[in-house]
Design brief:
Length: 118
């Protein structure tokens, strides 16, 4: 292997190690289950089955599935043959959901290039 390839390979390996060991920098992204990502229930936390989750979030399971695949909604825990969600994670998702704009609300104004320059 040429020296330039060795140096590039070493730099790539160092970057991979640093990225792997760094804490997740994902503010509202739910991480899938892994050995490194432990999800502990909070005191008094319940496990919700699919009908309970759909009743709280009020979307179809297909939409919920899309959100889980995109990392926008927490993935369920695999307990026996059922998929169960932690109630605290579902409530946190609902708590951070954006507010709906009403008909009379003003749309956020986009800044033009003229306004940005002095």
């Amino acid at each position: 292997m040429p020296p330039s390839d060795r140096a590039a390979n070493a730099a790539l390996a160092a970057h991979a190690r640093a990225t792997k060991n760094a804490p997740p920098d994902l503010s509202r992204r739910w991480l899938p289950n892994s050995r490194n990502h432990q999800r502990a229930p909070k005191p008094g936390d319940r496990l919700l089955d699919k009908p309970e989750v759909l009743a709280r979030v009020r979307v179809s399971y297909a939409q919920l599935w899309e959100w889980m695949c995109a990392g926008k909604f927490p993935r369920p825990l695999a307990i026996s043959a059922k998929s169960l969600w932690l109630e605290s994670e579902v409530l946190e998702f609902i708590r951070h959901a954006p507010s709906r704009r009403l008909k009379g609300d003003r749309a956020p104004r986009a800044r033009s290039t003229r306004e940005a320059s002095p």
